[in-house]
Amino acid sequence: MTLPRTAAQVLSGHVTLEIRRIDRALLTFRQPRLQYGKGIHGFFCHHRGNQFVSSALMHPMTAMFAADIHHYIAARGLDLIRFAKGQSKDEVARRYLAGHDGGEQILFAGLAQEKTRVWRTRQRRDAVTGKRYPWLCQEHAMVNHWYFYGFDAGFGPFYVKFCGYFPFTGQIYLNGHEYAKRQCARAGIAFTALDNAFGAVSDPAAVQQVCDGLTDQEIYRFAGKWLARLPHPFTPEDEQADYRWQLSVQQIEFSTTMALDRPVCGRIFFEQLIRDNIDVGRPDKVNIIFGRQIRRRGKNPYPRQLPHPGHHQRRLPLPVPVLQENPGQTVPEGRKSPPHRDHRQPAARLRHRQRAD
């Protein structure tokens, strides 16, 4: 048997197992109608019957949601872990999974302070009438985030995270390899599991079919099941008015597992791969600066040379101004000329619009 000489020869004739699947997925669930000022005005004024929108109306929802979570934790005897800054949440989860009996349940709850964008009310003065009016805007703030680490019979370990402040946007993390292991065990397919891959399987075609079965509908059913079991910040009346969660993909990773017939083929593959791309990391291609904090504002004093041709400059998007529901407050004023493409584009200036008598 002759040894391969190139990476292409390794992949063409020495691969005994190849599995393609979703590796990890981080999903976001949010209320799509509560992501902008007009929608929040409609929720509190038209739907709940308040006279005006204010962050004071959001605080009771936050307090009630926190009380429901504490009741959920106490009723099930769960541990509440208050994560410290820099503490690894995965390490805590691994300790609980080590003593888990395999049943479907929430293992523990966690609480952490994290920065996020929240809606606040600020007082502004009308330039024409001189009267003050509430101005709804978004700001960065450190708020509580609630974590629920659990184990699902079909998906294995997962976690659900809620922002503790209005509009209570959250995340769901799941692992495609854990899903594949659970489904293969149910189907009676023998396999050797590695850390996050298959080392060997008895039926590669059946395993690939299992991995292909992780569709959007399966993910929707999984997310809907656990969001229905966990505490909910919105009332049944809100749900009847079509204020429901919308699921989207924030980050997803795909993997290809390849097992080779001989260890020497793996060494040849990686050596050839490094040899073919050895100039990618040279100093004339990439500049990496360690131990420095580079501000995004202003001109970057540390230029970077892209390793691929073209040397495209990054375009920074124009920040979208937040407009209010009340008419006659502000409208965006356009710029006379567009800003330079290589500099941060400032937010559009706002001017008052005269109301017709």
Give a description of the structure.
Strand 7 and strand 8 form a beta hairpin. The protein starts with 6 loop residues before the first helix and ends in a 5-residue tail after the last strand. The chain has helices at 7-13, 37-47, 58-76, 89-98, 176-187, 204-212, 216-229, 236-240, 263-276, and strands at 15-30, 80-82, 105-125, 132-152, 156-163, 170-175, 191-193, 198-201, 246-260, 330-332, 350-352. The chain has nine helices and eleven strands. It is elongated, with a radius of gyration of 27 Å. It has one domain (15-267). The model is unreliable at 304-337 and 339-357 (pLDDT under 50). It is of the alpha+beta class and 357 residues long. The longest helix has 19 residues, at 58-76. Helix 1 packs antiparallel against helix 9 (263-276) and helix 5 crosses helix 6 (204-212). The strands form three sheets. It has a seven-stranded mixed sheet with strand order 2-3-4-5-6-1-9, with helices on both faces.
Outline of this structure?
With 357 residues, the chain is α+β, with helices and mostly antiparallel strands.
Attribute tags:
elongated; alpha+beta; seven-stranded mixed β-sheet; two-stranded antiparallel sheet; 11 strands; 357 residues
